[in-house]
Structure formats: C-alpha cells, structure tokens
C-alpha cells in the first residue's frame, strides 16, 4: 500500500484544491490492515479508466496493489439494491481506520461500475470528491453537473447529494474532514 500512498501524495501536491481541503502529513504510520475483498473488488483491476496522464501512475498503483487493500461495501442491499452493492466498493487509504493512520481526515479510494445510481445520501462530515478516472453526473438540491477526471466537488455537512455513473466505471478520491468523521453516510430516500 506504500506505493499507493506515495502516488496519492504526488497527485495531492500537484492540486491546490486537494491541498486546500486537507493536508497529508509527511510520515503516516501503517495500521497494518489485512486485505479484504468484496463482491465487486475484483472489477477494479479489470476496468480501464479515462484519466489525465498525471493521474495514471496512481491509477496503476491502485490496480497493481488492489489485492493488498481492505475493500469495503457498507450499504445493505435493501438500501441500495443488489447491483449497486455488487459493483461499488472502496477502501480507506488514510484515516482513523485506514491503511495509514490520521486522526482528523479520511481519504477513501472508491470504485463504481458503469451505469450505477448512487441514491441521495448525506453525512455530517464535509466532503470533497476528486475524480481520478472515468466520469459521473453529480447532483445536489441546487445543481447538476458531470465531473470527469481531475474535477472536484465539495459537499457541505449534511448536504444531500446523489450521483450516476455513465458508460464507464469511475475511480475517485473521497475526502472527509470535520465533525462526524467516524460515521457512515446514510441514504436519504
Ligand atoms: Zn458524500
């Protein structure tokens, strides 16, 4: 997982929006998480992602080290449906329960298959999405836009949001900060 962390730092240092949202400290201790799989986690390495050349080393590192990651899918099938729960997964790279320990931020690496609807949901923590590869249509109650590789989107505390991936899978950073860091997102509908 060190290679993923190192490449994540490279992407970070090149992007002022990521730096302004939260900082990654220089030396983070490993939490020695054991690798886990989900139904969908094998899809991550099979997909090809449209991405800028700056993001490709990180995407390659994620694919090459996917079998070391502690993959999760925390929604129930009754909340999100079987297709979503089978083709979405994530792991916590940095954070209280992440591969690398940090107390005040969480950095998740998240995968969604193509043509998935992520229902309206919300959480107390403030959030930034940073698209590594692929694209999706994002919605809040006041806006709708397509985000592609390199784009960012911020959600305020408890701001409800939803998303649809389009004809290709997507890989993204989700960053959390602020209150409610240890909670899960909840489906709003
Ligand atoms: Zn969110």
Task: Describe it.
With 189 residues, the protein is of the alpha+beta class. It has one domain (2-179): Jelly Rolls (Sandwich). 22% of the residues lie in helices and 31% in strands. The protein is built from 6 helices and 10 strands; from the N terminus they run H-H-H-H-H-H-E-E-E-E-E-E-E-E-E-E. The chain has helices spanning 2-13, 16-21, 43-46, 56-64, 77-80, 82-87; strands at 88-94, 105-112, 117-122, 126-133, 135-140, 144-148, 152-155, 161-165, 170-177, 186-187. The strands form 2 sheets. It has a 5-stranded antiparallel β-sheet. Strand 5 and strand 6 form a beta hairpin. Helix 1 (2-13) packs antiparallel against helix 4 (56-64). The chain is globular, with a radius of gyration of 15 Å. The N and C termini lie far apart (36 Å). The mean pLDDT is 96.
CATH topology: Jelly Rolls
Q: Describe the biggest sheet?
A: 5 strands, antiparallel
- Distinct bound molecules: zinc ion
CATH class: Mainly Beta
Name the CATH homologous superfamily.
Answer: Jelly Rolls
Encode the helix/strand succession as letters. Answer: HHHHHHEEEEEEEEEE
Mean pLDDT comes to 96
Helical amount: 10-25%
SSE class:
alpha+beta
How many helical elements?
Answer: 6
Stretches where pLDDT falls below 50 for ≥5 residues?
Answer: none
Kindly give the count of domains. 1
Count every beta strand, where a strand is a DSSP E run of 2 or more residues. 10
Sheet with the most strands: spatial strand order: 1-2-9-4-7
Rg to the nearest angstrom?
15 Å
The CATH architecture term is Sandwich
């Amino acid at each position: 997982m060190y290679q993923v962390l190192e490449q994540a730092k490279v992407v970070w240092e090149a992007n002022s929006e990521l730096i302004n949202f939260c900082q990654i400290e220089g030396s983070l201790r490993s939490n020695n998480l054991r690798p886990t799989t989900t139904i969908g986690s094998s899809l991550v390495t099979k997909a090809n992602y449209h991405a800028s050349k700056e993001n490709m080393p990180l995407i390659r590192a994620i694919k090459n080290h996917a079998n070391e990651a502690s993959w999760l899918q925390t929604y129930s099938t009754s909340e999100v449906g079987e297709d979503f729960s089978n083709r979405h997964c994530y792991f916590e790279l940095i954070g209280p329960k992440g591969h690398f320990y940090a107390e005040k931020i969480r950095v998740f690496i998240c995968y969604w298959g193509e043509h998935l609807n992520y229902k309206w949901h919300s959480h107390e923590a403030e959030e930034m999405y940073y698209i590594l590869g692929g694209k999706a249509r994002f919605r809040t109650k006041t806006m709708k836009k397509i985000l592609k590789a390199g784009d960012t989107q911020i959600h305020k505390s408890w701001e409800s949001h939803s998303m649809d991936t389009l004809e290709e899978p997507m890989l993204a950073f989700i960053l959390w900060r602020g209150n409610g860091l240890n909670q899960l997102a909840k489906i709003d509908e």
